[in-house]
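testing teh design pipeline on a random one, pls ignore if ur not involved
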């Protein structure tokens, strides 16, 4: 089988390697599609070399078909269509013991800390496997992981139907957060500075603001009768985004920090006192978020077709990463990893 190894310096090498037989508690999956995540792009550009090294198969936003199961595995069988929740927790630290294994002190992320899904056969722990209906297109299955991120973010916000929601940043995750929040009854407005992304958000039926052209807080207040947004998702990873998140929030508003900021931002702490704001962290997802995401895709609640910008063969993985770098128009690029999709 073929595997794409990241070998440093914006380079992938496609190599033929042996598929790994599953251990007793493992499942072997033929990878159909694997999406390119923002994290994968960071890895490609060398920002994660210290963590992943120069001989690593990355990729985790995948869908595929079970090809073999270990002797202790009972809940999936050969031929099942599946997605993988790419987390490996230690099971012993205080976070794991408290039931929060997705924020395990020793969390390993499959596809960064171990080899990932840009390979035709991927062998993973059985407890990371989620079945998807065979009726779901495998292309859409590759979106389940980023949709699960959005489900987790929205669940952390305790969003109620009818609440006003501001999503700051309209990249792929911001767009999915907006879709999940809308599905749960939120009145969603997306703030974004790229005209192409704004046009895409409008196509999806969202109200939008370009804070470069209009004052974001004034506009939010106009739209909410001076109340502000009940829930704010900071997905921009920028200092202006962090300023907007506190300025545009309603009294007792909940702010969810989704973005991974490259530098420590300055946060207006005064607003937390004046308006009893809440700031909530959100990291990856839990099993329930994967199940919710699978349900949403199954029900057609997410416009998967619009989210997929392009699909390329594994042999074109470098071109796919190059095309995504600094291209605001792109949402999700998928790599077709299997030679043929069954
Ligand atoms: Zn991802
Ligand atoms: Zn742990």
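output:
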């Amino acid at each position: 089988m073929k595997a794409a190894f990241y070998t440093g310096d914006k380079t992938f090498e496609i190599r033929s390697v042996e598929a790994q037989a599953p251990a007793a508690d493992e499942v072997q999956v033929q990878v159909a599609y694997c999406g390119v995540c923002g994290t994968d792009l960071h890895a490609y550009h060398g920002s994660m070399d210290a963590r992943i090294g120069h001989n690593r198969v990355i990729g985790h936003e995948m869908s595929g078909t079970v090809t073999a199961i270990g002797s202790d595995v009972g809940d999936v069988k050969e031929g099942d269509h599946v997605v993988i929740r790419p987390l490996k927790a230690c099971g012993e630290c205080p976070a794991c013991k408290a039931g929060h294994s997705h924020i395990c002190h020793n969390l390993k992320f499959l596809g960064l800390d171990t080899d990932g899904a840009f390979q035709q056969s991927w062998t993973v722990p059985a407890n990371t496997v989620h079945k998807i209906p065979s009726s779901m297109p495998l292309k859409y299955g590759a979106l389940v992981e980023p949709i699960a991120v959005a489900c987790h973010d929205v669940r952390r916000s305790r969003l109620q139907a009818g609440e006003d929601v501001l999503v700051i940043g309209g990249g792929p995750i911001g767009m999915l957060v907006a879709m999940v929040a809308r599905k749960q009854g939120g009145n969603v407005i997306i703030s974004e500075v790229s005209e192409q992304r704004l046009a895409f958000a409008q196509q999806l039926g969202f109200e939008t603001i370009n804070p470069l052209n209009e004052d974001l807080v004034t506009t939010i207040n106009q739209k909410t009768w001076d109340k502000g947004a009940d829930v704010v998702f900071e997905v921009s990873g920028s200092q202006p985004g962090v300023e907007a998140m506190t300025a545009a929030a309603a009294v007792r508003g909940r702010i969810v920090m989704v973005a991974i900021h490259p530098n420590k931002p300055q946060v207006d702490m005064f607003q937390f006192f004046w308006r009893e704001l809440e700031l909530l962290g959100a990291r990856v997802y839990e099993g329930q978020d994967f199940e919710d995401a699978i349900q949403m895709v199954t029900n057609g609640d997410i416009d998967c077709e619009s989210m997929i910008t392009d699909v390329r063969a594994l042999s074109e993985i470098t071109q796919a990463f190059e095309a995504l770098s600094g291209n605001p128009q792109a949402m999700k690029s998928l790599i077709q990893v299997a030679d043929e999709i069954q």
